[in-house]
Each structure stands twice: as structure tokens, then as C-alpha cells.
Design a protein that fits this description.
Largest sheet: none
Helix content: over 70%
Order of helices and strands: HHHHH
Strand content: under 5%
Oligomer: single chain
Number of domains: 1
Radius of gyration: 14 Å
Length: 115
């Protein structure tokens, strides 16, 4: 397996899991939505975008431009997450998941571009 394949699988897996939890409106996700000031429906929309991004990353193994577009979209979602945490004056530890995911996506993009 190549580094590109491994990084694509890692990014896709993270966003499928997180997006599915939002789509299913699991209790922790409903709590996070309320804390962030989002309705459950809006949070489900974010989850749908995350799952779509994961699909784009996976398809990016066949069509690299699609993978790059999906990664860019996921980075925009993550920027929104960071902005939301800052606006809510959340602790730094609450920003760590979004930052870690951003690093993962940027790593994927770096490998994709260098391929």
C-alpha cells in the first residue's frame, strides 16, 4: 500500500465516523450541537458534508482532482469548527480534535500533490 492510499484511508475513516455520528444524532453530537449553537438538523448537515468529503477523498485515489477538492472542503469545515470553538470561548483541549483532523487532511493533500 502506498503512503497516498494509507493517508486517504485514514482521512476517510475519520470523517465517515464523525460524520455518521452527526447524521445519526448520537447523544454526544446533540450535546455538541446545542453547545455550539446549532440545531440538530444543521449538525446533521455538517455530518453529511463530512461523509461526502470522506467519499471524495476515497474517490480521489482514482480521480486526484476530486480528492484535492474534497480535502479543501474538509479544511473549510474544520476552519468553521475552530471559529465556532473560539467564539464559544472553549478550552484549547476542545480545539485539539479539529486541529488534529486539519493536520491529517493537510498531510493527505501534501502526499497527493507530491504524487
Amino acid at each position: 500500500m502506498t503512503v497516498l492510499t494509507v493517508s486517504a484511508i485514514a482521512v476517510a475513516a475519520v470523517f465517515v465516523l464523525v460524520g455518521a455520528a452527526k447524521l445519526l444524532a448520537l447523544a454526544p453530537m446533540r450535546e455538541r450541537a446545542a453547545h455550539a449553537g446549532f440545531s440538530v438538523a444543521a449538525y446533521r448537515g455538517i455530518g453529511a458534508l463530512e461523509v461526502a468529503g470522506a467519499a471524495g477523498i476515497a474517490l480521489g485515489l482514482l480521480v486526484p482532482v476530486l480528492g484535492a477538492a474534497a480535502a479543501t472542503g474538509l479544511l473549510l469545515l474544520l476552519a468553521g469548527a475552530v471559529i465556532t470553538h473560539v467564539r464559544n470561548r472553549d478550552a484549547v483541549r476542545d480545539l485539539v480534535p479539529a486541529a488534529a483532523c486539519a493536520v491529517l487532511v493537510v498531510g493527505y493533500l501534501a502526499v497527493l500533490v507530491s504524487s
